[in-house]
Design a protein that fits this description.
The complex is a heterodimer of chains A (472) and B (489). With 472 residues, chain A is mostly helical. Chain A has one domain. Chain A contains 19 helices and 2 strands. Chain A has a two-stranded antiparallel ribbon. The longest helix of chain A has 32 residues. Helices cover 74% and strands 3% of the residues of chain B. Chain B has a two-stranded antiparallel sheet with strand order 1-2. In chain B, a hairpin with a 4-residue loop joins β1 and β2. In chain B, α3 packs antiparallel against α10. In chain B, 60% of the residues are buried. The chains are: A mainly alpha (472), B mainly alpha (489). At the A-B interface, α16 and α17 of A face β1, α5 and α6 of B. Chain A: It is an enzyme of class 7 (translocase). Chain A: It comes from Hymenobacter guriensis. Chain A: It catalyses: a quinone + NADH + 5 H(+)(in) = a quinol + NAD(+) + 4 H(+)(out). Chain A: It is a multi-pass membrane protein. Chain A: NDH-1 is composed of 14 different subunits. Subunits NuoA, H, J, K, L, M, N constitute the membrane sector of the complex.
Amino acid sequence: MNSIIVLSVLGLANLFLGFLRSNRLLLPVAMLILLVALGVNYLDWNTGPLSFFSGMLVVDNFSVAFTGIVVVTALLLLPFSQKYVRDGEPNLAEYYSLLLFSLVGAIMLVSYNHLLMLFLGIEILSVAMYVLAGSDKRNLRSNEAALKYFLMGSFFTGVLLFGVALIYGATGTFELSQISAAVQNPAPGFESLTPMLYIGMLIMLVGIGFKVSAAPFHFWTPDVYEGTPTFFAAFMSTVVKTAGFAAFLKLLVQAFPAANAQGVWLPTLTAMCVLTLLIGNVGAVTQTSVKRMLAYSSISHAGYLLIALVAFNGQLYGASANGIMFYSLAYSVATVSAFGVLKLVADARMREDYDGLNGLAKTNPLLAFALTVSMLSLAGIPLTGGFFGKFFIFSAAVENGYIGLVVFAVVMSMVSIYYYLRPIIAMYMRPAEDETTATPVPVGPFQSATLLLLALLTVVLGVLPGLVAGML
Amino acid sequence: MLTVLLLLWPVAAALLLHFFKGRAARVPALGAALVELALAAYAAFTFNTNNAGQFAYDLNWIPSAGIRFAVGMDGLSLLLVLLTAVLVPIILLSAFRRNFENESVFYALVLFMQTGLIGVFTAQDAFLFYFMWEVALIPIYFLAGVWGGVTRARVTFKFFLYTIIGSLFMLAGFVYLYFQTGPSADGLSAHNSALTSFYNLNLPVDTQLWVFWLIFAAFAVKMPIFPFHTWQPDTYTEAPAPATMLLSGIMLKMGIYGCMRWLIPVVPLGTDYWQNLVLILAIIGIIYGAIIAIRQQDVKRLIAYSSLSHVGLMIAGVFSLTQMGMQGAAIQMLAHGVNVVGMFFIADAIERRTGTRNIADLGGLTRKAPVLTVCFLVLLLGTVALPLTNGFVGEFLLLAGVYQFNAWMGAVAGVTIILGAVYLLRMFQRVMLGPDSSFTESFTDLTGAELALLVPLIVLVFWIGLFPNTFLHLSEGSVLGILNEVVNR
């Protein structure tokens, strides 16, 4: 809760820096704000569930952990915002503030206890992202991405709201635990409304499924990622996804754990999961642009996270939640690093295809190393956090008897090795083609340090997973 | 604690190497490898052969999942740790002969791989074993992929995909077994992945039948056994010589060791059921590898196929499930490691001088390079398994083991010695004897540094050949232990 206050208030204050025309200050100030938010968030650890706004928001270890992940992700991402906007860009302060505000939405998503808060969280998160997707105003692609994201996004938010309304109609409440009770034992007179409840529930799955880009509601992802400035695309595929999955898990665990509801959403979610894995991985294979490959890869990772939801075991503090938390963290760290490198390379070389990476190991060993570590992590190779992320999720699923699903997911991650190796092959085994690929990409010392830190984090997660796993 | 030191020292050294650039990294890299060798030698001298697991270290790694960082060495592990520790400095020395770009990174990767290899040979926890298994793969992928030949990107990609898919099957098998185990000792987790828990599972036969293939998939690709070998000749040929030495000298032993430690005692009934099939595949590999080797024109490819053939015999010996077969495999792992590294080094030395590996282009090296000829001949005869050399002891025991299991299989497998003599002596004749060619006109003999590298290998050829008991004694306890696990089920 404190982190929400910090981010909103200081985010507003950050806006005023724009008036001072002190663009140089923006990045350090934004990072400072995030550090403060991280600090106050840590103070909430193990203080037990605290309710706010008559129980509409609940801060517990689950929400603190996920808040920590999204804030840390944003913190690690910020160094790559440098040089994103051309010098003399007048709206720079607004972009930073929108980023901070969208984090507020993300934090609401991981700590809601009331469907209204879920809706508000999604809206706060999304509206900021709509604007940021179009922030490269002179670029048609960016405009296209913003429009696409906005149209589709607002449509699916409407769908989500429709689901919320149906659930309210069937249960008479917005509060998660009360919904859960009403699903199990409908109040007198409400028994005949159960089908409406189920429809509302499924419609909500669609709405959230869109936000986390689960198939078949993933269509926007590659196009929007491609047009959105890389920096914000990274934000979309990490913070938005992490918060979305935390919200997803909360909804299923706290509102619909009853066996009768599970009988409806479990097959639906399983089907979505299989489809997402298939489309994400097979789609990524055929891409020629690294950015689009990362977009499809982000779809495929939504598929792996859906396995954790399917393998859910009825509580917020179990293998499933731990799996999602560890996976989100490992995935976010690796993705930030991948997008970060891609952004630096694309800025210098003006291209985003695989060949644009040729010879990078010679010109920029550090960038090549960072991207390699992140690719290996995304592919789930041991020694990186991605391996243990997959390991925890898959073993939670095996433990609960979803062996077929895990076999399918393992086959899909074998496919993923193909496209995650392609950047590595380009960087290390192909020579530079022309002059632009033979000149080193300029990298600031701060960005180098961040990339090293990200690689280090990935390896630490891959060697000492016990530091984070089992926290929840 | 000593095991942990053996594990951490190479990786620490690899990190420190980044402070050296280019050629300056040579001395520290070699020094680090020699320190590792000294540590391994110390372990060997203080090793108590009457006792099974030693130098054990056990740390709670992932408490919530019951996964432990448990390492330790018995005789078999120690043998392979020794092999790794002896070969890595030699491989590093052989790399000094070449001029690489980014030398320090190259040596750092070799040392990093050493950690993975030693981890594989000492892990006492299934997930730690899998972890180390992949830790060994990543550096070799880059060693072969970055510094390799023209088609390296395609070839190493195939290699990486093959091995990682194989090891994912193994991981799946381990996960399945993990969920069959009882709670961890500290009670924090419902399951644990200790080696001993896997040994005590006593799964029903029909489960073991398929779990066997899950685990065997990884080993089958790594060794490799026919028909999972298609990555091997290309990778051996395309990789730079030091990487080929790592692959053939040490890495393929990971598969054989894995079978002995993590497959046969874990699923003894499954092994019993598939024993004949594996032996037949192994023997097909022996014959197939040898016949293709006869037809090879490329020295490196020839050695690659000969390696395939020799590994087939080791697999057959292991799966004969006899004491002789397993002991033979244990000592042959050492012998093969020594011989194949030496052979690849000589092939590389010839290639560096003449610029060709094509047998048809070579000839008449004996007159110009008598020292090289002698070294080559000794290693070659070791590979052919001439008595008094290291190959003889291993192959004799292996064949005796296979014969004990099935006389016909023993007879067919014995052809390996004849065919081996055919292709190796044929190569020796074409390369070393005969008339000069335009490529060999200005051939020079081995330099002092090269000789210094080959002498330890040649000493080992005779040492293992004349006093095999030094080594057989070490592995005997472990082999008996493994066979006990099988017999008791």
